[in-house]
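Sulfotransferase, pasting as requested.
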Amino acid sequence: MEELTYEESIRRASKTLCRFPLRSVRGIPLMEPIAQSWESIWSFCPDPSDLLISTYPKAGTTWTQEIVDLLLHNGDAEACKRATVAVRIPFLEIISPPPIPSGLDLLNKMNPPRVIKTHLPIQLVPEGFWKNKCKVIYVARNAKDNLVSYYHFDRMNHTQPDPGPWDGYIHKFMKGELAWGSWYDHVKGYWEERENRNILYLFYEDMKENPRHEVERIMKFLDLSLSDDVIGSIVELTSFKAMKDNPMTNYTFLPEEIFDHSVSPFMRKGEVGDWANHFSSEQLQLFEEDYERQMKGTNIPFRMNI
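Structure tokens follow.
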């Protein structure tokens, strides 16, 4: 039987892919193929050496994946070109029609220690990660920028529900009706458990403001020790411009039937504060009132600007 590369399998299946509806899994809306395969995802048992990178969608996931891979390879840029980021660091819960391999398919072909990506809220992360005390890196991005980035992503990503108009999308975000559910519950869930479990909780805004400091924090969390020069090189290799120009990380390896970069590039701006270009004064007031209500009683130090 012919062994297809990841990219070739996607090209062959791309014509038949569609915008999948969302289905509830334990109260969380997930794309239908994920919901249909939920039991196999939930039963995944990682090795204690595996590392999980978790984020709400569009909160710096790919950025963090590339930083981690470079740290694990001592800053060797060529080693990180061995495959696209989607193959190097599989997406745990993603399920696509054959012949596209699922995240579980890719993981089952890899030997530990593996680096694994997820967008699952903490209560849906398979229990094996906690039982085996796996390290988890969580990245949170301020709600306004996260909302804007997710909106543009859903416009260009033809496997998730059509986002509809911007004004309506804001309401979907506030109500937790987007894929992977409520941003509010997501960021709070990991925050509340960060000291009870092996979680390094990072902020997108800190990574933008002082990338070297955050790369060093990740390095220490992984029990690594790299030279100052290597750390400096990793910071350069994971700058927004470098990653946007890198075919291993910019998702141009997916055909336009799946990710239509003519609508919006996967790596669009990568800025803090771009939300100010999208909200009307009425939308901003509505959003901020709702934000205050949903985040009441939490002490997560989000910054909307830097």
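Note for the archive: The chain has a mean pLDDT of 93.
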